[in-house]
Amino acid sequence: MGIDNSEWLHESERLKRVLDEIERQLEGKKEWARKFRQNIVNIHRQMWDELKVTPQSAADLETMTQAYLFLSELERQRARYRVSNQLVRRLEKMLDSPYFGRMDFKEEEKEKAEPIYIGIATLEEPESGEILIYDWRAPISSMFYDFETGEVWYKAPSGVIRGDIGLKRQFKIAKGKLQYMFDSSLKIDDEILQEMLGKSVDSRMRTIVTSIQREQNRVIRDEGHDLLIVQGAAGS
Predict the structure, then answer these.
(1) Given this model, what pLDDT does residue 182 score?
(2) Is the dihedral of CA 115, 121, 125, 131 positive or negative?
(3) Beta strand 131-135 with 101-107: parallel, antiparallel or unpaired?
(4) Most buried pick, 67, 134, 140, 172, via CB within 10 A?
(5) H/E/C letters for each residue in 144-166?
(6) Rounded Cα gap, residues 194 and 207, in angstroms
(7) What is the mean pLDDT of each run of 10 residues along the chain (236 residues)?
(8) If DSSP codes are grouped into helix, strand and coil, which group holds residue 186?
(9) Rg value, the chain, Cα
(10) CA atoms within 13 A on the CB side of 177
(11) Whole-model pTM?
């Protein structure tokens, strides 16, 4: 089944919303880092101007002690600054390609399915608490790799969560633009097969491509043989 125009429009609009949120958070992190660096420079300059190398009185000694305590606190703040820099680099990467997969997961005893978008890192909207992107290493994301559509489960800290996946969709996003997308019950890793499924191919071709991926997965996951020979031309 192909992707119709309404679905393409829906996914394009959601991508724009996600990219806007990434840019907003990125600018916030950069602004905090700029202010932190400037604050450090100003504090050090002020301290060197005011502190005496040799304290002349108890008041001087107390001022010096307070200054060193404050510097120690600043060093602890530097750890937060380093974390902030890591987040900046991660958000910059996400601007290029924020996510690559989606699955519509309906948890047991819940009425509606929730679209779960999977990418390189988690992205949450602070005001609403909505998770726009789940990290691919998160427990819930494992279902995208381990199951086809249908009944599924995953291990959460609270225990095993069961439900059903009604849709699995993969995206190709580059430089913040949606290149193509396709629906498949399997996770397709081969880029050539991805491109074929992303084009308007007929149902027969989709069946062939999906069968190829299923055979590839079977070979990759084979644990029943000590020796496995795969016959065919290189890259086939």
Answers:
(1) 87
(2) positive
(3) unpaired
(4) 134
(5) HHHCCCEEEEEEECCEEEEEEEE
(6) 13
(7) 81 96 92 77 63 58 64 67 81 94 95 95 94 95 90 93 95 93 79 68 59 61 74 67
(8) coil
(9) 26
(10) 2
(11) 0.71
